[in-house]
Write a structure and sequence with these properties.
With about 240 residues, the chain is mainly α. It has one domain: Rhodopsin 7-helix transmembrane proteins (Rhopdopsin 7-helix transmembrane proteins). The protein contains eight helices and no strands. The termini are far apart.
Length: about 240
């Protein structure tokens, strides 16, 4: 069951990442590039989870799984929320910091001392790493989750002030789903760290990524409506020029 759920999370995240990447190539929207990176990382982490729970863990597999899944996925998801709410200028500045943080985290995780891991049970970070990697996971996932939740609250406040706008409602719904999915993913880490149930952990991964994907679809429905509205005046202007 654990391996099957890990494969399900991998498939869902891969579809999400591919869809976000395709749409980014069409529109170059910064939130799409951030989500494509985040879900690409999550898909790789889930694939490593499936590999470890089926064939057994080793140090290299767990290092990369922990780096992608526990440290980097949520911050890149948060960058997507920043881009949606605060615009491409702020997102570009945040992206440079996040690239630096990602490089720092990769260096620490790939070189940090760790205890041996074996078997097919999912190791827990606190039982394997010292304080450095675990601090990076707490900072990355914690700060990222705060940004996502704050973005959901901000978009909800904007919608409450302007209930006549369908776009603000869709944006509020999209951010709420992304925040909910992030909380589900974080809950899985807590369950694994405290209780140690591998089934519950992988179930939260598959569920959380599905909820986040629903938020992506809602956001893209909003973007599609906005694009159609902006294209109509341009077409009208083109028609008037041709007529004259």
């Amino acid at each position: 069951m654990v391996t099957g759920l890990a494969f399900l999370a991998t498939a869902t995240a891969s579809l999400f990442a591919e869809s976000a990447l395709v749409r980014w190539t069409q529109r170059r929207s910064p939130h799409l590039s951030a989500w494509a990176v985040a879900l690409g990382l999550f898909a790789l982490a889930s694939a490593l989870l499936a590999l470890g729970t089926s064939n057994g863990w080793d140090r290299g597999t767990f290092r990369v799984f922990y780096l992608f899944g526990a440290v980097l996925t949520v911050p890149w998801l948060a960058l997507g929320s920043v881009a949606l709410l605060l615009g491409p200028g702020v997102a570009r500045q945040a992206r440079w910091f996040l690239v630096f943080f990602s490089g720092l985290a990769a260096g620490v995780l790939l070189s940090a001392p760790m205890d041996a891991v074996r078997g097919t049970g999912i190791p827990v970070g606190k039982d394997v790493f010292d304080a450095g990697p675990r601090a990076l996971a707490a900072i990355g996932s914690g700060v990222g989750a705060i940004v996502i939740i704050a973005g959901a609250l901000l978009s909800a406040v904007r919608f409450a002030r302007d209930r006549t706008s369908a776009d603000s409602g869709r944006l509020a719904g999209a951010n709420a789903l992304v925040a909910l999915g992030t909380l589900v993913l974080s809950g899985g880490g807590l369950v694994q760290g405290i209780v140690g149930h591998d089934e519950a952990f992988t179930l939260t991964l598959a569920t959380g990524i599905g909820v986040i994907y629903a938020g992506f679809l809602v956001a893209e429905a909003r973007q599609g409506r906005s694009s159609r509205r902006t294209s109509l005046p341009e077409a009208a202007r083109g028609s008037s020029v041709t007529t004259s």
